[in-house]
Amino acid sequence: MKRIVCEGPNSLRGEFIPQGSKNGALPILASCIIFDTLVKINNVPDIQDIHTMKSILEGVGCKCEYVNNSLIVDSRPIKSYQISWELASKMRASFDLLGSLVYRFGKAIVPFPGGCLIGNRKVDMHLWISKQLGFNVKIDSGNVIVEDFNPKNVNTEISFWLPSVGATKNATFLGLFVAKETRKKIIFHNVAIEPEITYLWDFLSYNGLKLSYNLDKRILEIFPSEPKFSSLIMVDNIYDRIEAGTFAIAACATRGNIIIKDNDQEKYSLKVTLSRLWELLSSIGVEIGFGSDYIELKAKNRLKSFEVSTDVYPSFPTDLQPQAVSLATSIEGISVIVESIFDDRFVYVGELLRLGADINVVNNKFAIVNGGKKLNGAPVKATDIRGGAAILIATLTAEGKSILTNTYQIYRGYEKIVEKLSKLGANIFEETEKILEVSNV
Question: What predicted TM-score, i.e. pTM, was given to this entire model?
Answer without folding.
Answer: 0.93
